[in-house]
Design goal:
The protein is mainly beta and 124 residues long. It is built from two helices and eight strands; from the N terminus they run ααββββββββ.
């Protein structure tokens, strides 16, 4: 994970989901992702596990539009993110987290402007 472009950090810091992490003065780190052809997206979390729970940290996906304006397209909690193929032009993502002593996975699908939950998968 690396430092982010200023526009990406600013988009997250302006989002209401960042308020609790701003109070803790959390920094942000991330990396680029390929979610669709022709766009640059970022996977972002807090630096040094700032504000993380036992096995749950903040995860943001941010992308820029054709005018270069960055916006948050997903906010969730978890400890890992996988990009998976979709039958649509934008790939789905799976976020893993632990709840009730079990590893769970939530799948998210892009619905034009944001990612929305598609289902929860439980693992024994």
């Amino acid at each position: 994970m690396r430092a982010l472009p200023v526009s990406i950090s600013a988009a997250i810091q302006a989002d209401t989901t960042f308020a609790v992490f701003a109070d803790q003065e959390c920094g942000l780190v991330g990396r680029t992702l390929s979610l669709s052809s022709g766009s640059k997206s970022y996977f972002v979390t807090t630096a040094d596990a700032c504000g993380w729970g036992t096995s749950l940290g903040p995860i943001w996906l941010v992308t820029t539009n054709q005018k270069g304006i960055a916006g948050v397209i997903l906010y969730a909690g978890g400890y890992s993110l996988d990009v998976i193929p979709s039958r649509y032009s934008t790939k789905d993502v799976v976020i893993k987290y632990e709840a009730g002593g079990r590893i769970r996975s939530s799948r998210y699908h892009f619905e034009g402007k944001k990612y929305v939950p598609r289902g929860v998968l439980n693992k024994p």
